[in-house]
Amino acid sequence: xxxxxxxxxxxxxxxxxxxxxxxxxxxxxxxxxxxxxxxxxxxxxxxxxxxxxxxxxxxxxxxxxxxxxxxxxxxxxxxxxxxxxxxxxxxxxxxxxxxxxxxxxxxxxxxxxxxxxxxxxxxxxxxxxxxxxxxxxxxxxxxxxxxxxxxxxxxxxxxxxxxxxxxxxxxxxxxxxxxxxxxxxxxxxxxxxxxxxxxxxxxxxxxxxxxxxxxxxxxxxxx
Length: 223
Ligand SMILES: Cc1cc2nc3c(=O)[nH]c(=O)nc-3n(C[C@H](O)[C@H](O)[C@H](O)COP(=O)(O)O)c2cc1C
Fold this sequence. Notes:
Blueprint: H1 16-31, H2 46-56, E1 68-73, H3 76-97, H4 100-106, H5 117-120, E2 123-130, E3 132-134, E4 140-142, H6 146-164, E5 167-171, H7 177-183, E6 189-198, H8 216-219
Helix pairs in contact: 2-6, 3-7
Bound molecules: flavin mononucleotide.
């Protein structure tokens, strides 16, 4: 390693028993996370959303370029505009664009072009990936590992929201250029995920298919 300006790492270690307990407690909490498509018509506390976004902003990123932007949408008129645009794309997807194979993969989830939940959910957090940096003088800065970095930040955000007691849905209508247009984002940003966030409806259900998670031995190898 070369010497660069640095500060001490604020490391808080734990005795091994406490590590085990903490790892287990986090797993037990995350095990209960599920995407919801049934939201209560109830506003979300913006302070909670803000703190969860602070968490997302702490994600690692290629060369620390933090190539992301998050737009929190609570305005019912804008949410409705997004819903209508999303439903138009989704109708084309379900009737023309999606391959039979893709539709078969989605079938057990029961999803369709109806996105009423966008109106009901407390807010949308539209996540944008900055494919390159746009400087004040109009010049561009190359960004590295954009997809990986934004994916990790999105994961931090989903975990933080769940930890705070909010539900969400990773919504990815295809294509989703309409999100940058409606939200007036600059040309270096591509919509990455429309994260629908809110309280779940009291009768919210999880498709059985989503509860089928691989056993550890199926997705982990120790070498
Ligand atoms: C990258 C990504 C894109 C997704 N896109 C959609 C989507 O457009 N619409 C939808 O209803 N669910 C979408 N989902 C949610 C998945 O269907 C869901 O995560 C999966 O069925 C597992 O369920 P769980 O989140 O409850 O564990 C998406 C999830 C991911 C990670």
